[in-house]
Structure formats: C-alpha cells, structure tokens
Amino acid sequence: MPQRCTIRATLALCCMLAMTGAFALSLQSATHKKEPVDEQTLRSAAHRHGILISAAAAPTHLADAEYSAILSGEFSALEPENAMKFALIHPRPNTDPQPYDFAPADRLVRFAQDHDMQVRGHTLVWHRQAPDWVTHGNFTAAQLNAILRDHITKVVRHFGDDVFAYDVVNEAFNDDGSLRSTLWYNQPGIGFANGGTKYIEQAFEWAHAANANAKLFYNDYDNETINQKSDAIYEMARDFHKRGIPLAGIGFQMHIGLDFDDPDKLRSLADNFDRFAKLGLEIHITELDIRLRDGDAATLASQAKLYGEIVHACLQQPNCKFIQTWGITDKYSWVPQFFKGYGWGLLWDDHFQKKPAYFAVLHALE
Ligand code: XIL
Description:
Number of domains: 2
Largest sheet: 8 strands, parallel, barrel
CATH superfamily of the largest domain: Glycosidases
Number of helices: 13
CATH architecture of the largest domain: Alpha-Beta Barrel
CATH class of the largest domain: Alpha Beta
Helix content: 40-55%
Bound molecules: (3S,4R)-3-hydroxy-2-oxopiperidin-4-yl beta-D-xylopyranoside
C-alpha cells in the first residue's frame, strides 16, 4: 500500500517538524519572554469577562500614531469625549442649510468599526456645551421642546446601530438630590418645568423612538456611593422601571481622587451598584480617572491600587458591563485644566508609557 506508506511518512515528518517547532518556540519564549503574540491587552483580558473596556476619544488625536495604536490595540470600545455633544454636533440652528456637523463623530465611528470596537454615545441632553444659538435664543418652552426632540431624533437616527448605547441625560441632579435648574428643565425647560423627572423621561422616549435597539443611560458624577444624589437617581430609576420607561442602565462617571480608597466608600460603591442591578439595570463606569497631585512613584502606586479596586468592584457585579477611562494618556487629559493642581489621572503617562495603574487594571482583569 504505497499510498498509506506515503501518508504515514508524511505524518511522521509532520510530527517531527511540529516537535522541532515546539522546541524552537519554547526556546524562543524562554529567551524572549515578551513576544507580542503572547502579550495580554486590556481588551483581551476584559473580553474574557464579557465586559467592554473603553476610552473617551477625540477625532483630532487619531492622527497621532501612538495614540491610535493604543486606542485600537488596548480598547474594545470608544466614546467621543466631546464630538457628539450638542454644541459640536449641532453647532448651527435648523434654519441653516447645514445645522449638523457629523464629520468628527463619524471619523471616530469609522475608526471603531475598522478596529472591531463598539461606540458609546455621549451625550444627548446636558446643560453644558450647548451652543449659543440654543442658550441665547430666548426660545419658549414649546420651541425648546421641538429643538431637543429634533436634536435627539436626528443624532440617534444618524448613527443607527453603529452606537450601541447613549448617555441620554447627563448630570441632571444636584448633590442634595434636587433637580438641577437648567435650560432643559426649567429655564424655561421643554415644557415640564417643575415637573420633576418628566423632562428626563421625555428625552428617553424620544431617543427610544429614534432607535429602539440603543441602550439608554442616565449618567452622572458623585453618584458612585450611596448618597443624596444617588438616592434621587435610584428613585427615578425605580419609577422608570415600574412604568416601563426605556432606561437600560446608569452611568457612573467616577472622576475620583485617592480619597476614594477607603473601605467604607468601596463598600458603599458595591452596595450602590447592587441596588441598581436589582432593578435589572446595567452598570457602566463611564468616565474613570483618578487625579493626583504629583507623579511620584508612591503616589502612582496608590493610584494603581485604587484603579485595581474599581475594576474589581465592576467584576464583582454581574450587571457591570463597561469600564471606560476618560481618555488614554495624561498628555490629553481634561484633569489639569478642570482640577487645578491635579493631573496624572490616566493609564498612560504623557509620553505614552504605561503607568503602574495600567498594570493594575490589567492584573485585575486577568
Ligand atoms: C469634558 C471634556 O473632557 C473636556 O474636553 C471639555 O472641555 C468639557 O467636558 N463630565 C462629562 C464629560 O460628562 O462630558 C466632561 O468632559 C467631563 C465631566
């Protein structure tokens, strides 16, 4: 049976070659421990937990090769840091022939698609970064209602299923749990002034009507632990849940400092996540950064520890599906500008070197 012989001979040869190959490979990994093929990334580690690891991103930075390599290599999702905000995406009134400017956000969406990443939308209703034509337009409530409805509908329809989730309403509560007085609520608002969370509900209904597939979130800061603000958000969520308002989850920004590394706060964070999860809501950590006063080794180590704890808190909570840092590198972080005297908040330093915090996040995800 010459044919059988040939097959046997080929198998034996293949076996030998494979063994030699394996030997060569083990030799190689013994000598060069960090072959790129073996290297873990945040995204590969997060994937095994069924969660997305994301970064806020700016289209202008995509031209920076180091930035875009990290964004696509390490993250499984992105969110426009500014490009989808009202003032940027809808800079001119509807009377203008080109009231919307989708190009910058579209560039981010295309980048994400090219690299098999998800896109999270931010944000449809916010009292900040609204354009002058809206804030200084002296519109009536009925006019503002039409403007906001048009805005939400056009943006959500434009991106369709390319955007899997939106922060529909951002930062609508004060620290004491009362509703923030804003253009959209009561100055003069969209027709529900002093009607409690009715205007928020309306925004969710408009977004849902524009794309029933999109997961719709309420997003805020200082709502991470159990406090007056998170209590108020919880009451809203419970009410929406009861009445079938299309709220899919809560965004917890988590712009925090090292003071958060406190057992009571971390316990309160877990309990807070838990009560929202019990309503069937998804938990997204949406804007994580941990600001520091210096970049000394000991301070960076404390930061790394806290990053690890936050990731751990998410992994402990089955409904926590998304962890996002508010940028990639300290070079482009919003922190120094908005928190005077602070910086060093992110996972890569301003020379694109991985910080201890990067390894702590990776380790927590492993
Ligand atoms: C910030 C951006 O990072 C800055 O570039 C911009 O100048 C102001 O807004 N909460 C939010 C984000 O929901 O949209 C904010 O982003 C940070 C605080």
